[in-house]
Structures
1.
Amino acid sequence: MFDEKMLLDLQSTLGSRGILISFSGRFSQGIIEELGEAIMEHMKAEDRPRNDIYNVFAIFVEITHNIKKYALSKLGSDFYDQIYSSGIVTIGRNEDGYFICSGNLVEKTDADKLANALDALIPLDKDQLKKCYKEQRKKDLPPGSTGAGLGLIDIARKSSKPLHYSMGDMQDLAFFTLTVMV
Amino acid sequence: MEKLLIESTKATPLIDFDSDKSTLVLKGQSYPENAFKFYDPVFNWIDSYLATNPQEIHVEVRLSYVNTSSSKCIMMLLESFEKAFQRGVSIQLNWYCDMENESEVECAEEFKEDMTFPFEIIPEAEKE
């Protein structure tokens, strides 16, 4: 039930994991802007290097835009509402630095494609990622594209550790999680 | 031709393109919900402007953050300038950066690497 204990438990879970900001639900552009600004302000107040602030902000923007665009691309699917409400992003800090941890439901066929794309990116070093980014950016986009296919490469470039992902089996769908460190 | 003026918002930069002065200014952050939709009028204006055969173009960029889909749009814009430069149009682009921010400088450098027209990366004066 929604009582004092539930809220205190939630707060203690967030605190014990070092989570500074969390959002669960439908991402709108307005929410992305506000949360992005909030994390920037928090890190500025903590006197973090500008580069770290920029990277955390950039990763947050790419992840949340990906989640939102993916959900919108499922308009008309039986799972649209379920997918759209499934997004969650947390930003926090632990002994290794800042982390951006996200989760959202994806259709099984998309889960396989996404896993393949990530498996191809994870072993690449920074120079290979840069080359891959620049090549992709030069490609002509098919008409009607809503993205440039650069988001995951950019996230991998800005991450201080290899990306970590998982696909949890949820009957018809998969719960995709991604953890990025700065 | 008419000027193109789009005021900045949190997620979109100021676009101030003045054909009379041959000066194009982009300033702010760029991470709109749909970058292609935001930059579409910018591309159209540039196409019409380049069709007027300008002699010289000054471009001033101060973009403190560009997300990946905006980065693709900026690349398309720079490619139009590159084509004009190859046709003999004189182009000077000044990209102002916070030099303490490695990622911001790297972003500017990676555009510069792919262009042959004069492209300067200039330290942004400290703001108070």
2.
Amino acid sequence: MNETTISKAQLADAIRQLVGADNLIIDEETQKPYECDGLSVYCEMPMLVVLPETREQVRAVMKICHDNGVPVVARGAGTGLCAGAMPNRDGIVLSLARFSRILEIDPQARIARVEPGVRNLAISEAAGEYGLYYAPDPSSQIACTIGGNVAENSGGVHCLKYGLTVHNILGFEMITADGEVVQIGCEAFDSPGYDLNALLIGSEGLLGVVTEITVKLLPTPEKARVVMAAFDDVEKAGNAVAAVIANGIIPAGLEMMDSHAIVAAEDFAKAGYPTEAKALLLCEVDGTIEEVEEHIEKVEKLFLEQGAFSCRKSESEEERALLWKGRKSAFPAVGRISPDYYCMDGTIPRSKLAHVLLEIEKMSDSYGLRVANVFHAGDGNLHPLILFDANVPGELEKTEEFGGKILELSVDVGGCITGEHGVGKEKLRQMYKQFNDRELAQFHAIKDAFDPQGLLNPGKGIPELRHCQEYRSIEAEGC
Amino acid sequence: MKRKGVEDGESIMGDISKELVEKVVTAREEGRALNIVGGGSKSFFGRTAEGEPLEVAGHSGIISYNPIELVITARCGTTMEEIKQALAEHGQVCPFESPVFAGRATLGGTLACNFSGPARPCLGSIRDAVLGTRLINGKGEEMKFGGQVMKNVAGYDVSRLQAGALGTLGVITEISMKVLPIPAATATVAMEMDVAESIGLMNRVAGQPAPLSGSAWVDGKLYLRFEGAASAVEGAVKKFGGEVMEESSAFWEGVTEQTLDFFQGDAPLWRLSVKSNAPHIDAGGSWLVDWGGAQRWLRGDFDKAELERQASEAGGHLSLFRYGDRSGEVFHTASSVQQRLQKNLKAAFDPDRILNPGRLYSWL
């Protein structure tokens, strides 16, 4: 990476002229909220925080940074969970918060053109009047922005049926590292040449800054119902998930919780979860009224056949919301039973679930840290929540080590280190477990193709090769 | 589930992929371009191939298939027919409905060309289904990206990047992808309608909650296909009307395989990939509309620049899909920034431009 060739005062002057004093934060106190994203164990203060209002301003700011070797960290709502938006101390935070307009909804084509600072849920709210919605629904959807979703390729509980962000974006306008505007994708299903859409979605702000996004909208299903099923054994619940898939049903959502998560969620949300259960499944089916009625009966029957000791179907929208409430509040619920928790994000083949949970339990015992598991069972995305107390010296470090081991276990069983949260700063160390040096070098070559100076979100996403070698040799020595 | 013969096959296939690596390394050392060939079923596509053939069809076979995980992994040379057959045995399908081209189309070629059938707007393309790949870059380095799980955001999505790259970024040797259950019921209705009106109707139907899995217009008729739970399909047929076709699979196969009368003869076949509700383009010639209005086929001699302008205006892009002059550019003109990024990307994978050079664009 190039050395910064400009002082803070000079850069502030130059940027102030472009965006105005109101859109520039220089003092530390006002900068403080930008020091981290949703993963607050990683903090750093930036040199400047810039909040441009127009594409031209973004372009000009990027150009100045490019010409002066200043790192740029783009930021949406800061709800990310991998420290991907953690500032760089020699660089600027480029907040897209002012880009909050929905520019156009074309109900007939089922397309919305939005700015990156628009909240995920706001798109569905605006499209709702046309009977349409935007499918990916990360649990932070009230607050997180669509720009952040593009950067992280966010998922949600409906991924198995409706896909990730990458399946629901047609195109976007991007500012390159050197301040040029380029249109990626279009309003059609594909684009000429390389599928840069696929490459850039999920690239964690390392390859460009997005200033406008065209999303796909889907017709709101006529109806949705959920079945809750309780099991006295995790393996039975895993088999029940397999049985649903084997019977040709693709549920809209299929979530599992283990006993710790069930107890915490029930205590918090009073959703009526049987607290004696070892595993709880929530299976939602949606579609036309006829389809939902046909499938909901089938799913309930399968769950009972697979040994569920209790089943409950939502009979109304209120009941459906209540059954989901426990799952959706699982994180804050766990937050109540522990001073702190650390959320992991591995993905595993569904068939390995029982094995993985057992291994996690063993590690939980040996580390002396409790773990509650929530699992997007439909798509194999496991979120173990490690409970700890940051005020106890050394406990955070122990938690991070434990979390790292869980991710490595995910890779060992044929999965991956992150299903939807991204690598950011947090999982750099696990990247060497999933990729060898050749593959990492290929990633660096891609990075160079877009950002030869290495100014966009430096130190995130892809680890330096020399670091990997250090980690690898530590591993080899058995430390 | 491991498949029969996989144990024996493994080492032989390992050797074949090693052989492919060696061939790429040697070609690079000797500065020779390679033309990657699978089943040869799509040699008509892209610009005229240069270079010496690198045969990959021999690198074939399903490596693993676990119906419960909805994931299949196979070598690049495996034919789509074999894959479809294996899936059918377990009541599953490739959601993207790609052509099998008389049994010659391979999995690797299908990804490299990003070909998908009528179900594409509803169930996604092969680009959407891909979960992971193994590939050999232009330096002869074999690498693995993505995996066999539905969600994976570690590192850049190099696997999906291969879709439509026509092998210019790497020799794809192995692919893992998501599959889906065969729908319980299917029905197609047909109605007489002109093309402009049918484009409007396709979009209106797609905007309602219905198990739509295909909509196409050809020869004065609109075809709507519904697939899913029997009750839902019945409901949709009642709701949208039209004449229920006794036998519709031949029609949809004809669209997918490009064997309908519309596709006969060697007049240039243009593809306009556009915004689904873009108005009908009155350029003359004969048209076939697929993908709910988002993919429009046109036959005849036209001025490429003029068609490009119209495709851009319709929110999309143009390609000269088949026949016509294949020595010039056959894909939509790229902006200067796009060209720079795409060239840089090509260099990141294949610095000496030995893999299918010029197949996508003369400058790539």
3.
Amino acid sequence: MGIVPALLNSRFICNMENTLSDFIVDIQNMSFSRGDNLIYDRMNMTVAQGKVTAIMGPSGIGKTTLLKLIGGQLKPDSGDILFRGRSIPKMNRSELYQTRKDMSMLFQSGALFSEMSVFDNVAFPIREHTKLPESLIKIMVLMKLEAVGLRGARDLMPAELSGGMARRAALARAIALDPQLIMYDEPFAGQDPISMGIVVKLIRALNNALGLTSVVVSHDVTEVMSIADYVYVVAEKHVIGEGTPEQLRQHESPLVQQFLKGEADGAVPFHYKAAPYADELMELL
Amino acid sequence: MSTRKIEILVGLFVAIAVGAFLILALKVANTGFAGSGDTYTLYAEFENIGGLKARSPIKVGGVVVGRVAAIELDKNYYTPRVRLEISRQYDNFPETSSVVILTSGLLGEQYLGIQPGFIDETVHILKDGDMIEDTRSAMVLEELIGQFLFNRD
Amino acid sequence: MVLKQLQRMGAATIHTIAGLGRAGLMLLGAIIGKPSFRKGAPLLLKQLYVVGVLSLLIIVVSGLFIGMVLALQGYTVLVKFGAEQMLGPLVALSLLRELGPVVTALLFAGRAGSALTAEIGLMKATEQLSSMEMMAVDPLRRIIAPRFWAGVISMPLLAIIFTAVGILGGHLVGVDWLGVDAGGYWSAMQANVDLYQDVFNGIIKSIVFAFIVMWIALHKGFDAIPTSEGISRATTETVVTASLAVLAFDFILTALMFGG
């Protein structure tokens, strides 16, 4: 298997070129709204090369939207998103498609193609983007499946996989073309403790072994704190706290503290915006 | 489902469709004298063509020998001029032949009937582009009824 | 009050036009651009199977019954005028000009169209389309285009089969059961059916219908709200909209082809 060192080597050269900016993703003053609903208001964020960066926040603040913005599936209203120094929103279609070959995204559901077997799912990006002979594709796919521990499940259909296995298969597909950046959308949501442990281990291991950069979007505090090199806490359209896990634990913002400790009431109120309870009861009487 | 099996089934599907098209083209539709066969052209002028249309059949003793190619109005005399396309197979009509507009059944469609004339040394055979002089117009039902009513008085 | 009504009408109009725009963009994105034979041919073949071959049974059975019913109904009327010789042309012309293309399109919208809408809607709901896009594969080319072309190729073929089977069904009832003369059935048909005017126009109709049905079905799936309710509504909308569109275009095409 002389391919692996070669691939890692080419990656190393890429890294050398990119040391000019240590940030693989650089979000600058970005605003985005859906309809009349402002989701991000002039937000800044950077993702360091070769690190695991986590984005945490309460549900419903558009964390998935952020990943889609980085992937160029959505365009921000204003501001800029740089990937390796080049602006994603300003790219034309073919440049964008070219750039996407260097990034990949693991969707919450896995998003495996339901009409193909696990093997074909993992082979899909390789077959689409390269003209490699089938024998070589088979080697590559088996390597990726081995990395996620699903080499034995190659002939199963996605419908036959458990949720955790589907996510691992999707992870194998996401790393099929050795991307530079991999984005995980809620990788821990809805997993049992064992498969959660497997995913945590895989994210860390892949990051170290392949030298790729990971962005993890999640609200599972303990898991994120255990693997992330750098964490952003996003709420109310802004980054409200950032730093290494250690720094965050010492953070003075009550909102950050509430989120990290999982308290029911606090800076984020337990009650949805409403008229005072007593008034409303009085009206009914 | 293997690719091979799909290929075979799709192939069968296309083959059935081609077969069905051949049935429609050969057994159901009238492909004879569709304009593509080897034909020659004759002209005939009528006083009244009644319900004759382009593509109406031309028959001799009930056998279809051609089709009406076009009908236009002569600009000088205002008489309808019919262009006949007749199969090369039947290219020996003498100039003494006559053309009649006939109706199939009482209410059926109208067609052209050619009655071949006699042949002797002085009579030419009709060639491409010739005019058939002896014509009889369509029977128009309203005129017939009018005549019938008129004669009874 | 009136103002509000007006406002709502305006909003609905804009909504419809925006939907048309999205549908147009989807179609353009799917069918414009250089097709790659190496990748495209197996995909097209697979869809020809799903869309065409799997619809064959319903088309053949419906064609047979419609031909039989036409012959039975036509015979009872024609026999009163002693014109049962015209049964052949009656069956053939009704099928070739109208019933073949139209009924095939309606059945196709119900059988293949709704399935396509549901399939694509589900792919959208499970983020398969999104993830394909993130893998730098255009879902319009990879998913929509082969389905579209498979439909446009299959439907005229199905309509031809439907018509042929229907005419044979008419023969079964008219000749074998009711005793119309077999020679008369075919010869009267041949005397009245024209290859260009009737057969080819019917096929042209069918191609137009295929275009409409596939466009609507794929757009409804691609534009579906990615929830189970949204998909079920999109599926229903496909069948309703496609059927109405087919009938409306049938009138227009008939007026153009046979009306003048």
4.
Amino acid sequence: MANARHNRESIISPQGRRDTIVVGSFRLASAICIAGTLVSIGHMIDGGGRTALVWAIIFTVAAGAFAFGELSWGGRAARAEERRLRILLLKRQHALATASNSDPDGTPPARLVTMMTDNTERLTEYRQVYFGATLAAIMIPFLILFYIGIAIDPVVGFVVMILIPLIPLGIRGFMLLFRKASSESRKQRDQLSNRYLDAIRNLNTIRLLGAGKRIEEELGRQGEANRGAIMRLLAGNQIVIIVMDGLFSLILICLTAGLAIMRSDYLTPGESVAVMLLTVLLLEPLQQVAGFFYIGMGGRASQKAIESYLASQTVGPSAAVTPDAGSWINDRLDVQLENVHYDHGRGEVLRGVDLEVPRGGRVAIVGRSGAGKSTLMGIIQGTLPPQNGHAAVAGRIIDPQALTLTRSLSASVAQSTWMFTGTIADNLRIARQEATETEMWDALERAQVADEIARMPHRLDTHLGEGAAVISGGQAQRISLARALLSGRRLLLLDEPTSHVDIESEARIIDAVANLPRDWTILMITHRPSLLRIADAAYELKEGKLGRLELAA
Amino acid sequence: MITAQPDPPLHDIVRWLLRITRPVHPLLLVSLLCRIINLLLDLVLFGLAAGGVVHMMTGGGNPGMLAAALVAVALSKAAFYYFEQFTGHYVAFKALELLRTFVYAKIWPKAPAFVTHSRSGDVLTSLTRDVDRIEVVYAHTFAPVISAYVVGSLAILIAGILAGWKLIWVVGLCLALSLFVVPYIGARRSFNQTQATLEARRNLAHHITDTVFGVDEVIGYGRESERIAEMDQLGGEVCRSARTPRNLVAFRRGANVTLSLVATISVVWIGMGMAESPVVVAAVAAASLRLFKGPRGIEDSVGYLDHSLAAARRLWEMSNAPERVSDGPDELALEAAPTVSFQSVHYGYPGADGSALPDAIIDVSLQVPAGGHAILVGRSGSGKSTLIQLLQRHDDPRSGQVAIDGVPVDRFTLDSLRRNVVAVSQKNQLLATTLAENLRLGAPDATDDELWEALAIVGLADEVQAMPEGLDTHTGQNGSALSGGQAQRVCLARALLMHPKILVLDEFTANLNIELEDEIRKALAKWDSELTIIEITHRLRATAHADVISVLDQGRIVLSGGPADVTPEAIESLFHVRQRSIQEHSGTQATEGRSSAVRCTAARSIATGTNTFTS
């Protein structure tokens, strides 16, 4: 519980919390001014004359202004908070990507995207717009009745106030009852939606197999059955609506009317009219009920998702690598690992790895999946902090506190490449912003993809579009290689770069790597005999240690 | 292709929508009626309470009668509220279903061209969201808006007649302002700005997708802070464009609050001036205050309406997009394995904006003998799959002819053509349902025995038998409950169950090991001799058994012939020569610097086909 509270505090910014209060205050102020108008109306009836009228009009204008303020401020605050949250989430992703995550499966990127778009919007609509207003709406009846009790008649004011807790209780009961039905019917609806989505996703298959008509009818039939079930659920559960609505009207209006009549000896006509008009404000909490289903539930679910993502723990470096013991560094080695250990928190993956890659060398590492190859690569890349042992890249110690530096020393080509929206040139400039066209073409030549890009009508300015549909996976890999070459980093880390490409692309990638001048140092993970063949040395990662592999001539 | 048509006027779209949802209209009216009664009873309740109290205080009336009346009004109001809600839900669900079914019925005949050529991800996700948005109109917009106008006019009319126009003319004016002026102030600007916000949100989502999925690159090249800054800038645009609509919404709320109070004040002020009965004044004042609940309903709905109309327009465009191909006059019925021929075929895909893209197929001619086995080789993007798509008539060639047994494919009905030409691709194409239902997708009448037989041919019968639920095993979304190899074999079994005469195998072995591939090939050969097979492959070991082998590159056939002529070595040297010529052309790379080991490996991997996908 303490933990959950702590998280909540950390995800809504202080500014965001202040905004919630401001929004609530606007709502309260608006309601108080409305009450002011209504009370002034009572004074008018009791002979208050122009003074009362003037007051009524002043309160009226103020009530409108505060109502404007509530929505205007809340919306602005929500958008601003949304921006802050997105940054928080993205920074979290970067932190998680550069540390061992306690959650072995991690959050799928698609979910993170949803979190940063849809969920942040919902959460802030809930926290900055809805929440403050709702708190205020719940307080309003008490304030009004307190006022009636003090200023008009204690019996009317305080007797109704005793019954007022029935409202939140009633609403709560309403929500609980309704939630059950609504979660059940939502489940049914979700099922149907999923089938529908699935049918759309597989539109081509369905069409080509001649099943279009049949699936269409099936969807219709299921929809019908499903709807029948939902309606039966609702028919029963929405009886609650009668109870709630009737109860509110009865308790608040009939009771207030009854009390006012009972106390008619003590009330002026103006006061009794004012009391009756003020009952309208007692219904304020009801205004927020509908919003609960649209904004409240979605917002709370979003908050939970975002909280748990932001709370995901990383396993920190257990024993810091001693940065001062730099005497063992050998300037001629681009990768130097001595007795490196690593544990993701599920048992040691690396148990004393030793590796030396000389400058200009080409070293291959093999090993079955799960052997720790990616962990090893992560340490050298600077995305995982080494936990033990000595580690240096390009003659510089890997300092767990300064991994950004380590990351700037090497360039990687992974199994598959993400192509960013924009042109080919934009994608290359990710590696080096100030790269000239000549440099880009040079890198593309070396990566053996220049001729294909030169044939495209817009050449470097070819827009890659969504999902890089314009280029093949093989081309994307070679552009990724070009990007790495362009980065100016001389240590290339290749992680099975040809595992998802077509034959010609593979041949060209291998060709490209083989033809790189010895200015580049290459460390690669691969199973391909073809890539192994261009290595000077190969090692197998087995049971957490590296063993030298004899290369067939 | 979606933008190739003129935009229809708004009322046409609305009429179109109303036609689809006609079955729910009667109930929608019932729901509306219930809401109107509910709102009127609400006015009565407050008027009665306030008027009754004053009446009692001034010495008249019967408390028992008043209490009974209040209870009766309150309860019947609750009952009408219930009926309004219930019928409203019914309308919403039914409308949703009608729209979904309608749109699905409209778009499936347009597949596959629809999916291939439009930015499908976009279209398909927006499809479901758009349908949901329109549902909101039916569930939460129609009744509140109409009832606000109806109840408002009725209430003013009744009060005017009963209590005199002099007393309520200000109330009438205020209500008219809030019904006819306030909702429309800045409506157009608000609509435009909302579109701008949606656009800004799309850009933002796009940027976030790139950053999140490309996290390796972002971090690897130290671009974190730039991506964050860019994202925040896009977020700022969302903030800016959302400002105007939000302030207009806030203005409407403020205006309505003010107007409702002004109306109430006016009743009391005028009533006192007129020396009107205090009972009437109190009742009308209380009812006036409640009367503005209606405009508040409009306030909430107007925001939705913008989105909904845009959604309706998109649905209209999607549903009315032309079909790229249509049925020919004849049913294709084949007794025996047919020949397949391509005659000087040219084809270019249409671009997303309707413009033509450069030709993907250039002057391709190819003959596959009856019962033959043809193999298409080429790198990705060379046009192999496009040829198959033309054979299945995803689209028609720009020129030239694709024919089965000499008859052009556009002579046949699409269904009969595709029943006979069945393709199995490397892509996972399983529905999220049971194995049996997936298998029966193309052959709904297949018996369990037939399913098992097909599974046996693809070497999957034992594995399925071992699954606890057998044929009822759920395949998960996109076949996620199965391994890649299993999913692929289910797809093949599904194709076999349709008993096609032309079977297209597009990289169908991509996820299979060689032993399994051999077994399946053997079983296939035994299964049905009346079958013409066209295969797309990277593994060249199958070429020895083929009748025709064609090598494609950039949309052209660069080499074609029998296995004697088109040997793996010949293909390899072709690639090799082409590659060198490219390099000489580009002129910078020193070819002699290339290690011969690489060349050999490349050659070997092509020749043996052992390299890809097996590790």
